[in-house]
Design brief:
single chain, ten-stranded antiparallel beta sheet, 44% strand, flat
Length: 363
């Protein structure tokens, strides 16, 4: 369970970073040494962070923050003036995750009460509530993240293929466009190395995909450095060559509103929604009835289980639209997601397009 919770929170964190446009590694900033830095909470008011929760804090270069409170993804703004530090408009998602919820509530309240900061060696110390402290350690941003290939040594991903790479604990895995693969990895700061890559043995459909797979595996074996910046992961190898990946947005904890189905705009008097829970469950409104079901994601592939719904009758074509929506979900095979748009492709070539629903504000 610990690995599962950790993975969910990190994927949710990448989702929030995309939404806020945050870089994940430190950048130089003469007037704001916090800009672009990433941290993991160690002590909350003098007490160690409890249980399996991981609490993070990421400072953007545009005055924004993001992170995970141990249960929910949060965001907001911040202001630095000398050694003074204040946070503003802190908001979060609203999942309940006992027993970490009380710790998260205390943490978010501490951010709202923050007044100053300092560095203690490589630790960040934030002072709140007349002397209490939040103590953070620097954070490495690979564990629990997922990525999709953009280019290999300047050459774009072969058309018709989807190459993915995910990191979980000390193992990396993915899909080469032809085969599933995995390898151990070690990261130390920005230094990154992989063990021998193991893969399945399926033949690629064309020569270009086969060459891309070989180039990918050779690049991973020669990796020396990883940099995460501006929504992308760059893995450097062979004295300056680069693998470039774009962040894959996690679906867990996100909500969406349908904007097009099969190329058509939904009926004006219907609101079709889709919300992803954190335990493989999905729910929403078909524009007439409430529904729920299960979902599974592997890289950019997605499948939904049978959809169960209420049984209200609705006029004006909403029933037909709803049925088409449910059938499209059950035929889903792949997805692409950004902070603002979710696109789901079906086995018969249909497309469902969604716009992101707004996060709820934290009190």
């Amino acid at each position: 369970m610990r690995v599962s919770i950790y993975r969910v929170f990190m994927l949710s964190l990448i989702a929030l970073m995309l939404a806020l446009g945050l870089p994940a590694l430190a950048e130089d900033g003469a007037s704001d040494p916090l800009a672009g830095t990433s941290w993991q909470l160690e002590l909350l008011g003098g007490e160690p962070v409890g249980g399996d929760s991981t609490v993070t804090l990421i400072f953007g270069t545009d005055g924004s923050i993001g992170g995970n409170g141990g249960c929910n993804v949060y965001g907001g703004g911040y202001t630095v003036d000398g050694d003074s530090l204040t946070f503003t408009n802190v908001f979060s998602t609203m999942m309940f995750c006992d027993p970490t919820s009380q710790q998260e509530t205390t943490y978010l309240a501490a951010l709202n009460e923050a007044s100053a900061y300092t560095f203690d060696g490589d630790r960040l110390v934030i002072v709140y509530d007349e002397g209490l402290q939040l103590v953070f350690a620097p954070m490495t941003m690979l564990d629990g993240t997922s990525w999709q290939l953009a280019s290999i040594d300047g050459a774009a991903q072969v058309e018709g293929t989807t190459v993915t790479l995910s990191f979980d604990a000390d193992r990396a895995s993915g899909f080469s466009g032809c085969n599933n693969f995995n390898a151990g990895f070690v990261i130390d700061g920005q230094s990154l190395t992989f063990d021998t890559v193991a893969s399945t043995r399926r033949a690629c459909l064309d020569e270009a995909a086969s060459q891309q797979e070989q180039a990918l595996f050779e690049a991973l074996q020669g990796a020396t450095e990883a940099v995460i910046e501006d929504r992308q992961l760059t893995i450097r190898y062979d004295d300056g060559k680069e693998l470039v990946f774009m962040a894959v947005m996690a679906l867990e904890g996100t909500s969406w509103e349908l904007t097009r189905i099969g190329g058509e705009t939904p009926l004006a008097d219907s609101l079709v929604t889709l919300s992803f829970g954190d335990v493989g469950r999905v729910s929403g409104s078909g524009g007439c009835n409430r529904f729920n079901g299960s979902f599974e994601v592997s890289g950019s592939e997605i499948t939904f289980g049978s959809i169960a719904s209420t049984r209200m009758a609705c006029p004006g074509g909403r029933m037909e639209q709803e049925q088409a929506f449910f059938q499209a979900l059950e035929a889903a095979i792949s997805f692409q997601a950004t902070a603002d748009v979710l696109t789901i492709e079906t086995s018969d070539g249909q497309t469902l397009e969604f716009a992101a629903a707004a996060l709820e504000a934290s009190a």
